[in-house]
């Protein structure tokens, strides 16, 4: 009966989550790390707000004509991360990624700050090596060598990846902010496309071909009008429509993992940023689910 | 003198309202019904916030080159609706619609939740029968047969209309959310156009011809960036510019009545959602006024 | 391991909840009914916000020198209630109360609007009959015979109880608002104490003796400075300190059940209302737990 | 019928207002002047927010055991004041006060900034001369000779009165902020009581006797915990309870007029400041109504 | 060392400001005048919020491939303006403009309300006479002859300029609101382009040629989705992307001075309006700096 | 002249600050460290908000009958702290404290989180050794040995001090939250007083005598009604009045330094928490200034 089993009671997972890790092919994990933001904190509340807002959406997507009800995925909640201790946080995230990958499942992380992506990409690189392609959708290049002498902040997230992912295997889309040095670094180490996301994404699809792709989406790639709930918004971004279309296009790639980061609920009383994140997650689950059969 | 008569004092009607129901051809009515929302309540505050924000606009529209000062319309305030009692609320709204229609006036309702439209459409159907055309601009199909077994919620507003409006006389524009079952129902009973509003509206204008048209606009058809103050926002919608252009296009149709629903002020500290609603209402009054001569 | 079992992941229950209904003596249930409010809605978000804020408190209470870690209680989440359908909501709440009582456990409900208390008190009255004592802490008498002709609103919550609880077995504390008629009704049917809570509570303790006591606390008994997150605040209330002291005094009574209602998070950006509710719940669990041995 | 007459529709006057100036003995007027604030603006929205929140209160007062339903008073709305033009604003307010006084009615003004009180007191002084007693309840002395060289700001409101009200006929209660010069000025020209309101009010009651009393209450006399919605809050003030008790005590004086100023809704999302103002206004209307028979 | 000199401490100037007026060619000045707004006040907080948000941007612009680090500009803080005294405010602003112009520097004012632009344009007109071109980017025509009889409000800002700038030397771009009379006045005295900014700006570039250009940008030209923090928002405006592109186009003109007005932080909890203003200011400084060599 | 020198322009220091470190006896420093909060972040914005709100207060205190104008103190702005790097932050704070103390000045730090106090107390202990008395006013004991295994969080601030300050030289006042273990630790190592501040402060004054006293005030010692802008509020605290009276009482002690921590502006839209902090700082400056002659 309801009270005993939890059935009949409303829970707080992402809508449509299965109750079982084992049977699910896609695993949703919250990584509320919120430590190194130079400007405005709050991403620690991102994953839970995304779950909360997901209830306002349908499980069925008219875009892909399929439903979460038909895709076995599991929301295993938020990782317990130690406030103030970066190394410990990144270790926990990396271990979670390792396990999901070794279980041959598709990880879908919800940040937290962008640093969250680093140990996940590291876990994927251990599996795929230089086969791995990384696509970043972001307003900022995140290629700083350090920030006030400190080299592990969210402004260095992609720079840290260029340290262990050799070759120009990282695609940076939608970038509209960075230092002069970051853009110089990109010239050598990444493929950087300014301002736009959908158009370059279409262009690179053929060259990527069937290689395994990890996508990291910083919500601030979207204009602050559509996604005001983020720590370092940057005016002049893409619309929510372009963001959704870009996600739908990912079904043309061999998607191996995904994260969405930098949703910071305190700056968005309307909840529309977390809602957009929830809609993106729904479409990623459906796209990945259809690929996995 | 001012204090005695109310002249010289600022009132709280929609800008430019006449003081007299009898001489007005267009009647503005608030229907703050806010009962069945499954997610986030607050539409009960919609009509009053729309009035309050209207003061920030001009009575003159540069789009139509005419002014509210030249159109006799009357804002008769909010209906007094019983909190918690759906049947009583819908009865009161229906009676108000009946009277305005029988007085040969043009009703313009401000919700409240989308359920508000049902008794108004019912009143129009009693007058026009199958001549009546209904145009819905909305993010959601609102065609649910029930919600947790309950069949009178705002998620069923258009489904309730398909129960008494036979034939495919309902046009649904801008729809981007619903269950699989709702889209199946639409195939049989309505004309549903996904994602866009202005383009399909232009396409259907000729086939509608001179038939009387009732328009119901759910503010969530607009993207939450432009209209964050609503209970169930859905990312990926039209811009405020497209919304205004769509309203201006209505002057090509034989407009019989209009409502705007689901404005929920608590989720919009800036007031821009109510302001957009006020601007839409101004343009509808001017368009309807010019048709009525 | 963590991801599979949920261990190691942060959940969203009230802090310190056990994982098992069976072994718990105290059962926490959310009843997010939010239907009949005449003024400002939002209580549907109350239970989840209380859980969220509880994380900011300690499990240990220095007031009672004991800890939730030593009391087996279980948070079974929110009941799934049908939006817009009062009768169905109250039936679901009553059934939950019936089960908890028949399992000889202590129910602790989190509203939701005050109407939530009615089926719970009804369930207790079926067990204890006229032995049952009801203590209401509230700013409002809640004794309206109806509101705009409708007799099931939160303004009638206690009036509905006087319909099935004969004798003056209801104590109303802290009341500072009502109609003339409500105060007349109270003279005949309840024991009403104006403005204060702690002082009259001490006075009535002896006369109540060992009879089973159900306490319903409407958060608006506290002044809006301390509890701004509520739908119908009433200036001139008690402090949070007096509220806590009153709860601590309840350990002198034979407490059978408890509810806390009318916490409405949208009106409190700081979260302190839900936090006060969480602290009160902690103290009630500890007080009830020590009585149950 | 409802739509035509406005009956049956919810209006936006202060609760319980009569429909007729002539028959009313007490006149409520909004004076949304908001021009000279040195710190944070917003008092222009005060009167309308007070009306809006009044709906959340009962017309009956358990404190005085009487109801607005039994007192003929009239809310004539907000004066239309020219933004940016101080002299014109103060002239309009003075004319409204003159008329109400010459009609032998009791004026009750809602600010707006404290400068609003100056022309009203001027109007009373023209009638009563040195018989007139002024009681100010306020956190600030408001005795500045100027602010950056400008002598008509709200920081000079009482200083302006000392210019035309000779003798120590002004009582200042609750004062906890001012410049050294203001306190020196008070020594010569007013009776200033620091920090407290109720205690000094009781002490001066006998010496005031039956002289006509005008009370001006700046909401910031109340601590910002209870009244956060004001432009220049000052920590360390009285509670809402002491404010209400002080108002109730006014029935021991010969009350001739009243104003409540500096309610600034933008700084109070909960609305409790305007609500406290509404409750104070209800009690003043009831107290003044009982004196007028 | 840091504490003594301020080095090492974070200050609150616009990012990258020099420490010295003398060596700077571009001077940033806050003019927090906020007096005549007819609707919602708050622009007095604009300049400081813009500075605060600027910290979230980079000094380097990828759009222009140059950095504030290479342009000597100086933020001299906010002018001290007398609250409530329009004439004194406008005199202070005019004197500041006079000095900067006579020192052959480029003034960049941050309002405050739009009235701020009038004395600055007056100062430029004294230097350049009819050579001067004024470009206004705005939702409103601001050509009112008066507002309630008062002729110095922000709704008359451009009208006041037409009084002393003869010939059609004022270009109005993006206008979508005004009275019928304002549009008539524009026909005679200005060049008014409706709805759009970038397209007409490109069209008029050739005809303006090398004449000195002063640009005044009212942030409400941008749609309230992108710039909600303003007093009189007007739905249906340009995107932040079009605003940025328009600013970048200004490098094709002989830019002499610039202001950005009507940023009102209280209506934008996310800060994105001030952030967009900061980004615009960065681009203007870089564009003007490159012109000045 | 104004623009060049900054004179005539409004700056953003705490009201009444001198322009010179050398001549000042009291030094105000912002330490916006915001790294280890387990619950809700935001204290990094505390110092700047306190400065901003200080403008709403007078420099003159009627409580002490003296003015900041007569006390030479200097606000040297915020320390530049590395986000995410605790050790570096604490080193910077310690160095600032060392310098101020070695210059024989009185340091007044504004946090930031409570961890900020640790290096400051360390600096004082190096000077005074066991002569030093520490008084903590706080809701929480802050005596945790670690938090999730991490020993440098704000929940361990006082525990860290007990590591290097031997003897029971720490007085903890107002404590109403902690774990059982923290209260056990307090029994051995500190003097802990529950719930109240003013009463125990008076009691310990004599026994402290003339020993040098460092006071650390966590704003959450005040009830969240009066100080909602903090990360871990705890209901049931002291009033703002008691806080001010406690600060005034400090003039009876030999005050050597002071800090106020945990002001977190994002949770307080009204700004009253920062305002209370500003008022407390004013009173501390005046009290310390009078002691220093």
- Percentage of β-strand residues of chain A: 15-25%
Largest interface: B-D, 27 and 27 residues
Distance between the termini of chain A: 34 Å
CATH topology of chain A: Arginase, Chain A
- Figure out the total of helices of chain A: 9
* Count of discrete structural domains of chain A: 1
Assembly form of the protein: homohexamer
| CATH architecture name of chain A | 3-Layer(aba) Sandwich
Q: What would you say this structure looks like, in words?
A:
6 copies of one chain form a homohexamer. Chain A is an alpha/beta fold and 293 residues long. Chain A has one domain (26-292): Arginase, Chain A, CATH 3.40.800.10. Chain A is 35% helix and 19% strand. Chain A has 9 helices and 11 strands. The first copy, chain A, has helices at 2-5, 46-54, 86-102, 117-128, 157-164, 180-189, 198-208, 240-249, 272-292, and strands at 9-10, 26-31, 60-61, 66-67, 73-79, 106-111, 133-137, 170-175, 191-194, 212-218, 254-261. In chain A, the strands form 2 sheets. Chain A has an 8-stranded parallel sheet, with helices on both faces. A two-stranded antiparallel sheet of chain A has the order 3-4. In chain A, helix 5 (157-164) links the parallel strand 7 and strand 8 (170-175). Chain A is globular, with a radius of gyration of 18 Å. The mean pLDDT of chain A is 93. Chains in contact: A-B, A-C, A-E, A-F, B-C, B-D, B-E, C-D, C-F, D-E, D-F, E-F. Chains B and D meet through helix 1, strand 1, strand 2, strand 5 and helix 3 of B and helix 1, strand 1, strand 2, strand 5 and helix 3 of D. Strand 5 (73-79) of chain A pairs antiparallel with strand 1 of chain C, so a sheet runs across the interface.
């Amino acid at each position: 009966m309801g009270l005993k089993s939890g059935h009949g009671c409303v829970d707080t997972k992402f809508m449509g989550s299965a109750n079982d890790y084992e049977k699910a092919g896609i695993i949703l994990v919250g990584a509320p790390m919120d430590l190194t933001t130079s400007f405005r904190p709050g991403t620690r509340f991102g994953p839970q707000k995304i779950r909360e807002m997901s209830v306002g959406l349908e499980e069925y997507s008219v875009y892909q004509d399929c439903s979460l009800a038909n895709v076995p995925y599991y929301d295993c909640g938020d990782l317990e991360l130690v406030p103030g201790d970066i190394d410990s946080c990144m270790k926990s995230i990396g271990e979670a990624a390792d396990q999901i990958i070794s279980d041959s499942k598709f990880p879908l992380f919800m940040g937290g700050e962008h640093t969250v992506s680093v140990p996940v990409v590291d876990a994927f690189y251990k599996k795929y090596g230089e086969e791995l392609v990384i696509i970043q959708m972001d307003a900022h290049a995140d290629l700083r060598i350090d920030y006030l002498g400190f080299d592990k902040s969210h402004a260095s997230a992609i720079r840290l990846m260029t340290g262990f992912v050799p070759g120009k295997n990282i695609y940076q889309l939608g970038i509209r902010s960075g230092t002069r040095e970051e853009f110089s670094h990109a010239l050598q180490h990444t493929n950087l496309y300014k301002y736009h996301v959908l158009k370059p994404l279409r262009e690179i699809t053929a060259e990527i071909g069937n290689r395994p792709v990890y996508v990291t989406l910083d919500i601030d790639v979207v204009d602050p009008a559509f996604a005001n709930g983020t720590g370092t918004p940057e005016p002049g971004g893409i619309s929510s429509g372009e963001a959704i279309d870009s996600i739908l296009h990912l079904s043309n790639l061999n998607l191996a993992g995904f994260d969405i980061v930098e949703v910071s609920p305190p700056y968005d009383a309307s909840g529309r940023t977390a809602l957009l994140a929830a809609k993106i997650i729904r479409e990623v689950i459906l796209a990945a689910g259809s690929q996995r059969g």
